[in-house]
Amino acid sequence: MALSREQIAARLRQLRESMGLTQTKVAAELGVHRPTISEIEAGRRAVTAEELYRLATLYGASVAEILAEAPAEAVEAAELLALRSDDTNSPGVRLALKRFVADRKAEFELEELLGLAHPASAAIRREAPTPRSTMDAVEQGEALAALERQQLGLGAEPVVSVLHLLARQGVRIGPLRAMPPDRIDGVYFESTDLGPCVGVNWRDGDWTGGRAAFTAAHEYAHVILRDRAIETFHLSAGERDLQEVRANAFAAAFLMPEEGLRAYFARKGLLRGQTLTHLAPADVVRAMDYFGVSRSALLFRLQNLGLVSQELAASLNDFTVGSVARAAGVTFREREYIGTRLPQLAIHAWRLGLITAGRAAELCDLDLQAFRDLMRELGEQQELDEDTPLVGASAAR
Does residue 385 carry a pLDDT above 60? Predict the structure, then answer.
């Protein structure tokens, strides 16, 4: 049974308020006057299909969710939003977290539609006692990283992709879309249906991918330890939280094993005895590319292992990575994009006629015309229904 205009209006109002947005802010985002939003939410004006799509995107919901007879529950999203009031007060953060949970649920639903097996967790559970001190947390993290590397047969070689390792072990991964750049780095949660899920904030300025790689490795620790049921992670926070210290130590040792670092710099002729007596900006950039890490993570790790002095590490924090990389002829490995599974499933379901073009476009984060253009470029064929110009316009009032 189709929802009435008033029911759609009430649902849109509830979604706006749950995101902490004003009618004025929403109107500005849509490029309309505030009274237009007021009229829509009062049920006095029908919402167009384009407006509904844009409102759904703004509120981190799907059009299908808004129009469903029974609105979908978002328990995991509510729990994520309740984790840190300082991080989640921002509407942008709330939206990104809500979208992440909705995207993972959409993946699950598309797998059901397509008759695909859901990812099964293959990660080996590790046990570790509650850390008693910072040193204990660091030692536990490094020991766990060594065990995991041994299990995966990595030796001392660099990890090509932490995210691919997670996906191979049944973890649902995805980007935190539209996350404000200075807030949350990563998200981890696990639910009965979805299993373990990891979200990573791709920053526009992180063109080397190093910060995202460290975030993914940090969340990897929580996946194998299950020491957190749910968390939002900020790289600069949690220094007093020993479980977070342990996860950071795991990430550093997993991405940059001591044996691998020493062997790498020895091959470069830079290791003298037990220390690096000379390290130039170009050496840092090349090592960043080799291990797939950020400058700060590399220098911090080298300093903690006693390979460089605090003074040398500090002196290497003020050069511009991009300019040095160009001068040294270093082309960083292309940053992997982790948001491909959901659109691939959506296109497949649309191709088979299991979902509409509008829903597929929404899951691909495109408007309807852009989706149709993309399908033409890909050579995909599917019979499309005519767009309904108004949603709720003809419903009983």
Answer: no
Residues 7 and 68 in one domain: yes
Q: Which two tokens stand for residue 266?
A: 């020895």
Instruction: Note whether residue 322 is domain-resident.
Output: yes
Alpha-carbon span 258 to 189, nearest angstrom: 30
Range of the domain at 40: 1-72+351-397
Tell me the pLDDT tens digit for each residue of 193-227: 888 888 888 765 555 578 888 988 999 999 899 88
335 CB burial (10 A radius; 0-12, 13-18, 19+): middle
User: Amino acid identity of 72?
Assistant: A
**Residue 34 covered by a domain:** yes
Model confidence over 17-36: pLDDT tens digits? 877 788 998 898 888 899 99
In a domain, 164, yes or no: no
Residue 240, pLDDT > 80, answer no
Q: Answer for the pair 123, 224: CB distance below 8 angstroms, yes or no.
A: yes
221 backbone dihedrals φ, ψ, rounded to 5°: -60, -40
Say if strands 172-175 and 195-200 run parallel, antiparallel, or are unpaired.
parallel
The dihedral built from the CA positions of residue 208, 211, 212 and 216, taken in this order, carries a sign that is positive
| CATH code at position 45 | 1.10.260.40
CA pair distance 50, 320, nearest whole angstrom: 43
Which of 133-137, 185-189, 330-334 has the highest mean predicted lDDT (pLDDT)?
133-137
Does residue 377 form part of some domain?
Answer: yes
DSSP string, 251-279: HHHHHS-HHHHHHHHHHTT-EETTEES--
Q: Count how many domains the chain has.
A: 2
pLDDT of residue 392: 43
